[in-house]
Amino acid sequence: MLAWLLPLAGCVVISVLRLKLSRLSAVPGWIGTGSLLVAFCLSLISAGVWLMTSPAETAAFQASSVSDVAAHETGNLLQRRLVGHWYSLAKFGEIDFPLGYAIDALTVLMFVLVTMISLAVHAYSLVYMADEQTESYQDHHLDHSAGETSERPGRFAHFYAALGLFTFAMLGIVLAHGLLQIFIFWELVGFSSYLLIGFYHERRTARLASMKAFLMNRVGDVGFVLGMTILLATCGTLLLYPVHDLNGTSASSVPMALPEAFQAAVEKAVPSQAIHDQANLIPTEQGISYALLVAAGLGLLAGCVGKSAQFPLHPWLADAMEGPTPVSALVHSATMVAAGVYLAARIAPLLLPEALLLLAYMGVVTLLLGASMAIVARDLKLVLAHSTISQLGLMLLGIGVGAWEAAIFHLITHAFFKSLLFLGAGSVIHTTHHEQDLEKLGGLRAHLPLTSLTMLIGVIALSGLAVPYVTIFGESLGFSGFHSKDAIVSGTMAFVLKNPHHILLLISVLLGACLTAAYSLRLWFKLFARDTPVDPALQQVHEGPWLMTWPLVVLAFFAAFCALGGEEGFVSTLVEESLSPAPAWFSDSTGEVVSIQWTNASDRHAVHGTAGAMALAAAWLGALIAWALYGLQAISSKDLSHQLTPLVRLASHRWYFDTLYRGLLVLPILNLARHTAWIDRILIDPFIDGCARLSERVSHASQWFDEAMINRFFDNMASSVWASGLSLRKAQTGHIRQYVLLATMAVIVLFLILFAWMPGDRAGR
């Protein structure tokens, strides 16, 4: 709780103090860094307590409780997880919307990971963002021809406040125990990323990039909301876990968790021949439509696809490089894009075969698209951005083939080496005065030896390279990326062996491994391989201060060794302990539309050696190609690009997805808006203006009628009443004799009137 709330506390304190502190002050940065340091220490303490309370090697434990017996009956062992509620947002009958927490080994591991990388980014930014501590910041990347002004006040405090809010939101996703709570922090992550990507909002490109990220994420979030709505209607809950303590005792007052309720719904699903019957798209007496349950999974996956920048919602991630480089390191490693993969792995038991198969193919498409764009990109940060897109596709491929433990394993290793590479790129950009063009950089190894070495470790980890026939702890000698990629390739191969008609998945993942090694080594060779810098002005560059270098060293250590032992190692064991295994019905299910045989852990272990050898061979092939092209320069990269001009043009223009979306979505909407504005200007505005003028004239006529007729009539009536009153006033003399005489005369007059008109026979009177 404290580790989660401390980044928010730092954000609030910075927001309050920034109104009183000078822009020249570094206090906001130290407050943000200090809050993350304490949060990281608390996360480490929590991890230690967790591991001492329950040994990490145990994937599940036995408990003498009713809930454990029920778990065995459904094929799932009760996992070591501490779940509880804080309070209820709302309750409608049996449907409850509580806020609470779910803590297991993966939660603790993710807390350590997120706080560590965020702490490194906070400390690194004390130097990288130091130029924001000024009253007149000069932005040299602005387009002056567009009227953008280069001088503005610094926003050092604003940066650290948004960074703390971003970290708090990601930790909220990790801690949440239900889909509704995840969605709340999911949206907060999107809002925080909007602030950070558009940090340099004076630049038109930054404004467009932040808006693009925000809108594309909203597209996926619509599917997320629809998926939650279907699950709530069919299962009656959005809780992912039942509430129980560490002894396995469940709380009797808490409704069934979502996976069990979903399993019951699947068992009652209508037959496949009735899927296309519209009447069966709602719950019936016979059960729930299978198509509706598939739609629920696809809706949740739409949110994951948007947040993790998967095809076809991937273009926003490359444009997100408009934010500061430390933000890119955090967004592309431990937060935001990681949230989509994390959620997909958590909800994997809720995904039916059709949804998982679609996810697998979307993953391989994204893997190859990202790799192809990275291998031709000239911008330093764009290479890493496209690399992130590619690696996220690899993770979702792992989830799609049923190896979601391997996907989370790769998510953790990717967080370390990708944050290392982004911070290393930031070190290069900072020392070279914001130069990012790879064709202008080069030969920096002698001037930036520490950055060169740490980025080489990150590149090797990203490439998945290892030393053949040399083992340590029973696994090939390689850095973290090799072990986690090996696990995903093993899962893909096991899946393909059971489903040979999906051989394209295995071919694609091996091709992706080759391309990944090629563009990774290309990046390093272009930055550091030359003996002297391409630009003579770069001869004077040197390493940055220790606040920029020690995060590189720490992250390089974990990028190299966090996955020791491979799938039998410490990190992988913690992941396997936490993620829900496939339900009993899943292993035998063939789906209603597709026929799939799913794999299990034993299948993946059986092909582990073969899959690892094939992945390693593909990676070394890509590395040798990069070495020949950019290291030895034995082959001219320009000649090769000329031979492959059509492909290079497509990849350089990001496969024209931006052009496609602009033509299909943006321009039609702009044209519709333009025609609507024309109708408003030509038709509606004149009509409204005419009505206004008519109303004005009617009001003038009404005013004349009111003044000339109505007011004069009532004024004359009032004058007449006043005059009559004055005349009658004279009759009031005050003499009693006069009043008696008038009364007598009145009585006589009344008597005469009555006598004259009294009915009767006049002859008999």
TrEMBL record:
Key word Transcription present: no
Residue span, NADH:quinone oxidoreductase/Mrp antiporter transmembrane domain: 177-494
Q: Where in the cell is it found?
A: Endomembrane system; Membrane
Transmembrane residues, as ranges? 28-52, 157-176, 182-201, 222-243, 287-306, 327-349, 355-376, 383-401, 407-429, 450-472, 503-525, 546-566, 611-632, 739-758
Q: GO cellular-component terms in the record?
A: endomembrane system; membrane
**Which EC number(s) are documented for this chain?**
1.6.5.11
Q: Which Pfam families match?
A: Proton_antipo_M (PF00361), Proton_antipo_N (PF00662)
Membrane topology term reads: Multi-pass membrane protein
Please provide the record's keywords in A-Z order: Membrane, Oxidoreductase, Transmembrane, Transmembrane helix
MF GO annotations: NADH dehydrogenase (ubiquinone) activity; NADH dehydrogenase activity
Judging by the UniProt lineage, the source's domain of life is: Bacteria
Which PANTHER family does this entry report, sorted A to Z? NADH-UBIQUINONE OXIDOREDUCTASE CHAIN 5
Q: Which NCBIfam families match?
A: NDH_I_L (TIGR01974)
Q: What is this protein called?
A: Proton-translocating NADH-quinone oxidoreductase, chain L
Report the source organism.
Answer: Planctopirus limnophila (strain ATCC 43296 / DSM 3776 / IFAM 1008 / Mu 290) (Planctomyces limnophilus)
